[in-house]
Specification:
The protein is α/β, with parallel strands linked by helices. It is 30% helix and 27% strand. The protein has a 9-stranded mixed beta sheet with strand order 3-2-4-5-1-6-7-8-9, sandwiched between helices. A 9-stranded mixed beta sheet has the order 14-13-15-16-12-17-18-19-20, with helices on both faces. Strands 10-11 form a two-stranded antiparallel sheet.
């Protein structure tokens, strides 16, 4: 094989991170604590070779062949075509030529083990080898210098054979072993993180890759049937699609008028307000309007189920069911305790690139915040996601619930500077009744009304009233209508309270 040609790692996600896969005939290191997924992704590397008709070898020092076959079976794999060399097999004590005992010096055990590996390689003549694991070799060596020499001997031996080698190391040494990093052509770290609540999170990072430009940083992944599903970190600059710069209507003439005609494609709008004020209903209006235009829309709900969404749509007279049945509108319930940010970004990308969604609703950012293992990076990840959606010509509707219902309200995070448009929804009281007000406080592109309007959710959908000119305190969180009641909307028995 030409050294300029890449070979697949067996994982589409890792190949994407590496820009095409591994350089052949090199030695690579997978390191991580037990349970991080090293054995699984290493087996994917060998299975890829076996599918291509290559001769592949798995050298097992820490796991038995029976254990490996059980792992493979649970992933739905067959190890046919993979030569598993188990060191030392249970019946080795019956063979005096291969017997290794604690009475032998460490040097004898180590050199004998290496010789057995070399002999098997000569016999099989593989193009791909996985060596699992170096921790056993380290124990046999007992001395760092002898250990390094043996790893170097492995590297030189395999280099002469035109073999691509994956070494596995479970980081069992008391300190970080940088010797392996200097010897290896590339190093990939796999981590398993235990959160205070919810499922564990796994991520990987390419720490080194000689001569290969790779996507740096941490990339989320999960272990599922069929192997590791790796979600490369989203970089918006890598994705750009030409799209028409037209207006995406809400399907409601009054809302479009408030926004100066509507929202432009490739932009995002933030709906902000207290819980229950009508943010999700307004977002749903945009999604259903897209479906009625013949476009695809996607709703990602962190906070409520499909039943609640259907009940809301029925209450305000929106034809949700026909939109879903036609396939134009997809609804996906997101469990923030189980989903990593990387997987969520990959799910959104799939809806845009495969399902051709033109309107995306994220309801709500509060749930997305809970899905983050580290809140400090929420805004950075959201910036990349919004930039990506904008470059794809998608209209994105974001819902953010503020803390508190009445009085002073606060936002759990501030992403208003990332938003192209911000609509503020507020409760206010007049004559002993609870009412709702809406205003556009920001819109980067085009004109918009600077008024505050009352709005109502009824069986007729979202209805807006006349501008409330005698209003004060709405931005402080304590709105007060000081007028005589003239501009207020008349009572409607069908209105929601």
């Amino acid at each position: 094989m030409d050294d300029g040609e890449r070979i697949s790692s067996g994982s589409d996600g890792l190949d994407s991170i590496l820009g095409g896969g591994f350089d052949p005939n090199r030695m690579y290191l997978y390191e991580g604590r037990p349970g991080s997924g090293k054995t699984t992704i290493a087996m994917q590397f060998l299975l890829e070779g076996a599918r291509n008709g290559e001769s592949v070898l798995y050298v097992a020092l820490s796991e038995t062949e029976r254990e490996l076959r059980l792992v493979a079976a649970r992933h739905g794999w067959s190890l046919e075509g993979i030569d598993v060399f188990e060191l030392v097999p249970p019946d080795a004590v019956l063979d005096p030529e291969r017997e290794l005992t604690v009475l032998h010096p460490a040097e004898v055990e180590l050199s004998e083990t290496i010789k057995l590996v070399f002999d098997r390689v000569e016999q099989v003549n593989p193009t791909r080898v996985v060596f699992d694991s170096l921790s056993e070799l380290r124990l046999l060596a007992q001395d760092p210098l002898r250990y390094r020499r043996q790893v170097l001997a492995l590297k030189h031996f395999f280099a002469q054979k035109d073999v691509t080698v994956i070494l596995l190391d479970d980081l069992s040494s008391s300190h970080e072993d940088l010797q392996l990093h200097s010897i290896s052509h590339g190093v990939i770290l796999l981590e398993q993180l235990a959160l205070d609540y919810g499922a564990e999170r796994r991520r990987l990072r390419v720490m080194k890759m000689r001569g290969i430009e790779f996507r740096g940083g941490f990339h989320d992944f999960k272990i599922e049937k069929g192997g590791l599903s790796i979600y490369p970190r989203l970089i918006a600059a890598e994705h750009h699609t030409a799209f028409p710069k037209d207006i995406a209507s809400s399907g409601n003439a009054q809302i479009d008028q408030l926004l100066g005609g509507g929202l432009e494609r490739g932009t995002n709008a933030l709906l902000i307000g207290a819980a229950g004020v009508g943010k999700s209903s307004l977002a749903l209006t945009y999604a259903i309007a897209a479906a009625e235009r013949g476009e695809n829309a996607a709703i990602f709900a962190f906070d409520e189920g499909r039943g609640t969404l259907e009940a809301r749509a029925q209450t305000i007279g929106l034809p949700l069911q026909p939109a879903i049945e036609s396939g134009r509108l997809t609804f996906q319930q997101i469990d923030p305790a189980e989903l990593s940010p990387g997987e969520f970004a990959a799910t959104v990308r799939h809806s845009v690139e495969v399902n051709k969604a033109r309107v995306v609703v994220i309801d709500s950012l509060n749930g997305y915040l809970n899905a983050m293992p580290d809140e400090r990076f929420l805004v950075l990840q959201m910036h990349e996601l919004l930039s990506y959606l904008g470059q794809q010509g998608v209209l994105t509707i974001l819902v953010l619930a503020q803390h508190g219902l009445v009085g002073q309200v606060e936002s759990p995070l501030d992403i208003s500077y990332l938003s192209d448009a911000v609509l503020m929804l507020r409760y206010f009281e007049y004559a002993g009744t609870v009412r709702r007000a809406i205003s556009v406080v920001k819109k980067r592109s085009g004109h918009h009304e600077h008024t505050i309007r009352e709005f109502r959710l009824s069986s007729q959908g979202v209805t807006l009233g006349e501008p409330l000119t005698e209003f004060s305190g709405i931005f402080s969180g304590t709105p007060q209508y000081i007028g005589g009641g003239g501009p207020l909307m008349k009572s409607d028995e069908h209105a929601r309270s």
